[in-house]
Specification:
About 4% of the residues have low confidence. It is built from 14 helices and 5 strands. By secondary structure, it is α/β, with parallel strands linked by helices. Strand 3, helix 12 and strand 4 form a beta-alpha-beta unit. It starts with a helix and ends with a helix. It has a 5-stranded parallel β-sheet, with helices on both faces. Helices cover 58% and strands 8% of the residues. Helix 8 crosses helix 13 and helix 13 packs across helix 14.
């Protein structure tokens, strides 16, 4: 049977650099926490460079840091365990009513956590940027593109300056033609994907503003953001784009929309009346 990642790290310990040993020491002492931490936060905790963490993962013959977290999760599983046991929520023996209750409890808990994570000054700064923008582009990749689409759909009923682009190539085209008066809302759980970083670099190069909605304050993309809106659960390593993460981001969208409308309710109402009349014609 193949060694798990913990045994592999211990076996390689004497061959590692001093910085890499600091990573191993931290992981062994904080195994559970490391499953949820970002690569930037881990590098800060260990006082090593982000590139050192990446090289350490590759030295263990892993594809990257996310792969490393997956292996940590597998090492924590007892024999025969599965993903539902790792989540510790929905169990095979649960009744349908129990499943419904657990899901409701999870959603309520995650929304409550997002409320406490979200900073009022950061929201105020974000709405300042939205109201002063020439145009606002709502973007995201993967499942988070759904949130970007929902944000555009919500804001478009109150203002004509909001838009979204789903195709990654067209996103690059739009970003490369932004002006200094434009704003981008980017939804990214990790804030550490290649797409998010490439977009952030283009946005900065154009002098436009970036509102980043993410789980991690110290994510790589946060360094480019004019304001960072924190939200989201501690996703299990086997989860990617969980419903809880999407709902947390939708909560942020609703907060931004409500504050955007509150600052100029008359204009928002006029736009909504116009939209309402147009949509009424579509009803049977």
């Amino acid at each position: 049977m193949a060694k798990n990642i913990l045994a592999q790290m211990m076996q390689e310990y004497d061959n590692l650099t001093r910085s890499e040993r600091k990573i191993v020491d931290y992981v062994l002492e904080h195994q559970k926490e490391t499953q949820y931490i970002s690569i930037t936060d881990l590098s800060a905790e260990c006082e090593v460079a982000v590139s050192t963490v990446s090289l350490f993962c590759r030295k263990l013959k892993l594809a990257g840091f996310n792969d490393f977290k997956l292996e940590l999760a597998r090492a924590a599983l007892p024999d025969g365990a599965n993903k539902s046991q790792l989540a510790g929520e929905i169990l095979p023996g649960d009744s349908l009513s129990t499943v419904m209750g657990k899901v409701l409890h999870t959603v309520q808990e995650e929304l409550n956590n997002s409320y406490h994570m979200l900073s009022a000054p950061a929201v105020a700064r974000a709405v300042d940027l939205l109201r002063g923008a020439g145009q606002v582009v709502c973007l995201g990749q993967g499942n988070h593109s759904v949130v970007a689409l929902a944000a555009w759909a919500q804001f478009s009923t109150t203002s004509s300056k909001f838009k979204t682009i789903q195709d990654s190539h067209m996103q690059a085209v739009v970003l490369s033609t932004l002006s200094k008066e434009d704003v981008v809302i980017y939804f990214s759980y990790s804030g550490a994907t290649h797409e998010a970083l490439e977009a952030a670099e283009i946005i900065r190069g154009r002098g436009a503003k970036l509102i980043l909605v993410t789980r991690y304050l110290n994510s790589p993309a946060s360094a480019y953001a004019d304001t960072v809106l924190l939200c989201g659960p501690n996703e299990q390593p086997f989860q990617f784009g969980s419903s809880a993460a999407l709902m947390a981001q939708l909560y942020v969208v609703e907060v931004l929309l409500s504050e955007f409308i509150r600052r100029d309710p008359d204009q928002a109402e006029r736009n909504r009346q116009s939209v309402g009349k147009a949509l009424t014609r579509k009803c049977v």
